[in-house]
Amino acid sequence: MAERNRLQTLAGTLLVAALVLVFLVPAALAQTDQEPTNEPETQSDQTVSQATTPPPPPPKKGPDAGPFSKGKVRVGFYGGAGSTYNQTYVILGAGVGYYLLNGLEAGVDVEGWILQDPTFWKVTPQVRYVMWKMKSFKPYIGAFWRKTFVTGDNPLHIPDYDSYGGRVGIAMNKGRSYLAVGAVYEKFNDDVFSGDTDTWYPEIAFWISF
Known about the structure:
The protein is α+β, with helices and mostly antiparallel strands. The chain has 2 domains: 1-34; 67-209, Porin. It has 2 helices and 8 strands, in the order ααββββββββ. It has helices spanning 2-34, 43-51; strands spanning 73-84, 87-101, 104-114, 119-130, 138-151, 161-174, 177-188, 198-209. The protein has an 8-stranded antiparallel β-barrel with strand order 1-2-3-4-5-6-7-8. β2 and β3 (104-114) form a beta hairpin. The longest helix is centred in the first third of the chain and has 33 residues, at 2-34. It is elongated and about 85 Å long. The protein starts with a helix and ends with a strand. The model is unreliable at 14-25 (pLDDT under 50).
């Protein structure tokens, strides 16, 4: 009888212990899952965190002057027609310029008044401002000083001479190139044209900007 009672007591103790384990172990495991960890973020975690942060907006850009922007180089070719000494000349020339500011160019052109005698070769330092903010047609205005060399058959013995003047016109650009059409006024320092001290003539120029 005593042996039977000890077995019943042992069985009851084991049953109680089993019930305690059944209820306590799951609760302890749940509490462990909820506790925060103090481990540092891994590189992958930081990458995900950074990826979710939106980038700052790009800085706003000012208006683009295109081929007339500061620092651009202008290479030009132009032509026209002019009259002097009762003769009509074909004018061909080329030049290069540098934009000091948006629309403001300083440069030098070389042109020849050809197909008649005498022939006139002109070297022209100049400044020009293009109103680049205009949409389709961009007006321009400029001023120049010029040194003219007289060559060829020169029966009137016309000397080399200096002059100065200005130009106005419009430029139409597409990409890096643009076409300019305008008029030039030139005033002569010396009386080399028998009282004709100034002249007007048209010009057509083709410019490329780099």
